[in-house]
DNA sequence: TAGATTGTTAATCGATTAACAATC
DNA sequence: TAGATTGTTAATCGATTAACAATC
């Protein structure tokens, strides 16, 4: 596959937001929108919207604007939402269970196919029809099923080793919820959700803006 | 308070990571570190570390480097971690419960003091000694207790209204887990955790890097 | 056609990196 | 003092915004 140009992460991270807004417009029966109108709703510049979209092609029409349904669909394609993705959860504690119970991921084609934990109390339990397996069974499972994404919601002590193994066994995406930085081989993508970092930056801003 | 200069969010978002690494060094008994050594560990440039830190003052010593304990403590102060912060959770579903059970926030001074939900089945239940109250009691509670941060883990339909109310009642930080953009008055800080966005960007990268 | 709005180039702004004088 | 490393200025790089020609 010949990539024309590397798209910056700043752009990529804005795409889901565009996708969400366009979805809402679609639900409200809006058929067309200009970059200016969308920019006012989203509180960004129209220039940025047009630049962002033109990284991927010309989706609009001069003098008219953008067809909402078409643009929504195209951004979905860019994000890879026309494919389904299979996921497993490694670590079925509080957070793992919460994510396992999320049904909205499925709507976007993210299907949960496996749950793993070391805790014998959890093994054998089922969440939404999926049985929690012992972590010893994970290698076999991953090699047998095509696993696109592993959700890492386990204690941080074992994350590094687990991530290395999963990468070795062919998992291409790691959604990491541990406060640990994973350095994995090329070709494996890591997306971190550092809740404690997020909370700390909120604390900073609260303290900074005291008395504003 | 006279702010000298506006610090960019890019810098702020790196601070928790510095804080974490320095904490680890501290635990390992490391007493001093140079920006170069730290940069190698963290895979960032030494220049960036020095620039970032010098936004807040000179914490190092020429020819020596940085004292790990001192720097760790100072970054903690910058992030506001020497203060405690009181938090409530609004919406005690799967994710709300998971966050309520997190004990690690407490270690950093983030104390949970209230839980609220509309669901009569959840009201009256206790998590870690905190009773879930009916959402009708929230206004009174917030006005009586000093609430710094509200964690919004409720269905998205009610988030906008709830956020506006909480802001009105004096809550200064909103940690928002709903796929909704909140536009609140100045002085109220919003930190979004858009899990679905995070997952979509991971999907994009997996698809993009196919065959790499 | 005239008006509107895109796609795209150019200008600006901000963030990152490099370089080096200051100094421990 | 000599060596090391910071703090800080200058250079570069990238991202955002502005402007406008293309065109529907």
From TrEMBL, chains A, B:
Residues at which NAD(+) binds: 91-96
One GO term describing the cellular component: cytoplasm
Pfam families, per database record: CoA_binding, Put_DNA-bind_N
SUPFAM superfamilies recorded: NAD(P)-binding Rossmann-fold domains, Winged helix' DNA-binding domain
Subcellular location per the Swiss-Prot or TrEMBL entry: Cytoplasm
Principal location: cytoplasm
Lineage top rank: taxon: Bacteria
Keyword terms, alphabetized: Cytoplasm, DNA-binding, NAD, Repressor, Transcription, Transcription regulation
GO biological process: negative regulation of DNA-templated transcription; response to redox state
Gene Ontology molecular function: any one: DNA binding
Residue span(s) of domain CoA-binding: 81-181
Gene3D superfamilies: NAD(P)-binding Rossmann-like Domain, Winged helix-like DNA-binding domain superfamily/Winged helix DNA-binding domain
Transcription regulation keyword on record: yes
DNA-binding feature ranges: 17-56
Family annotation (NCBIfam families): PRK05472.1-3, PRK05472.1-4, PRK05472.2-2, PRK05472.2-3, PRK05472.2-4, PRK05472.2-5
Function, in words: Modulates transcription in response to changes in cellular NADH/NAD(+) redox state.
Family: Belongs to the transcriptional regulatory Rex family.
PANTHER family, per the entry: REDOX-SENSING TRANSCRIPTIONAL REPRESSOR REX, REDOX-SENSING TRANSCRIPTIONAL REPRESSOR REX 1
Subunit structure: Homodimer.
Name of the protein in its database record: Redox-sensing transcriptional repressor Rex
């Amino acid at each position: 596959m010949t990539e024309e140009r590397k798209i910056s992460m700043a752009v990529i991270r804005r795409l889901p937001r565009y996708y969400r807004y366009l979805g809402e417009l679609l639900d409200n029966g809006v058929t067309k929108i200009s970059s200016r109108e969308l920019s006012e709703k989203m509180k960004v510049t129209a220039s940025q919207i047009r630049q962002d979209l033109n990284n991927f092609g010309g989706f609009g029409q001069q003098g008219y604007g953008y067809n909402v349904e078409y643009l929504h669909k195209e951004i979905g394609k860019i994000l890879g939402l026309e494919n389904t993705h299979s996921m497993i959860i490694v670590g079925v504690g509080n957070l793992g269970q919460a994510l396992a119970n999320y049904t909205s991921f499925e709507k976007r084609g993210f299907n949960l196919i496996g749950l793993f934990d070391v805790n014998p109390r959890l093994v054998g339990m089922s969440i939404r029809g999926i049985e929690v397996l012992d972590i010893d069974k994970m290698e076999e499972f991953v090699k047998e099923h095509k696993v696109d994404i592993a959700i890492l919601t386990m204690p941080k002590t074992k994350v590094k080793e687990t991530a290395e193994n999963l990468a070795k066994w062919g998992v291409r995406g790691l959604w990491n919820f541990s406060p640990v930085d994973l350095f994995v081989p090329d070709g494996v993508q890591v997306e971190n959700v550092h809740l404690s970092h997020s909370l700390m930056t909120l604390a900073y801003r609260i303290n900074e803006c005291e008395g504003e």
